[in-house]
Amino acid sequence: MNSRQRRGVILLLLSVLCALGAFAGVLTVISDVNAKVGPEVTAYRLNGNVKPYTPLRADQFEKISMPKRWLSATAVTDLRQIEGRIAVTELRKGSLLQTDMIVERPELEPGEQEIAIMIDAATGVAGKINAGATVNIYATFAGEKKDDPSQSRMIVAGARVLSVGQLTPIDNRNDRSGRAAAEAVPISFALSTLDTQRVAYAESFAEHVRLALVAPATGGAPADQRDRTYTLDKDK
Fold first, then answer.
1. Which CATH number fits domain 40-104: 3.90.1210.10, 3.40.190.10, 3.40.50.970, 3.90.1150.10?
2. Position 217 pLDDT exceeds 80
3. Residue from 61, 69, 60 nearest 35 by CA
């Protein structure tokens, strides 16, 4: 190997060493950046304005990625967190969604009250009534006078069920039918003031209070309001 070839080999080796040094420098920079920035996580940004008290939907947000260390502890990282929630204030386009921007949707609408009553397990729709269901509430009253017929009345149409409790043993020896109910279920409803009074009255003075499950997307109220009251002689 002559001197020219040796110089070529040396230059080649120096080039390789310089390349390795540059590569090592790049890796060092990347490692330093990663150390400072950290891993990226998912966040959600509004793709439009959202008015206050508006129910939230997944299509109102766009998914983005950003360094975890730059994300606040209240940032929403899973859209399941918006289920059943509404905006507290007006949300602006481009804002990152935070948990303190949203709250659970209130169960009661303006003008509604919550009332809970015990329903005899034998006179309800066993196992089929759940929170969110719509029911009609019926009450059976004895005749006011000795010869007056008993009446069954729809006291509330389209009552919205808020919650259903567990079967509870009861000893209802004051039942007008003379029997003791073995088990009852506490069920709460969202009702207007007048319907709340109707339910409270029925629970106190009716012989029985029954629930009828209403099909979805139907109001439950009869077309003819006279159909709210039934006596046996109507079938004669």
1. 3.90.1210.10
2. no
3. 69
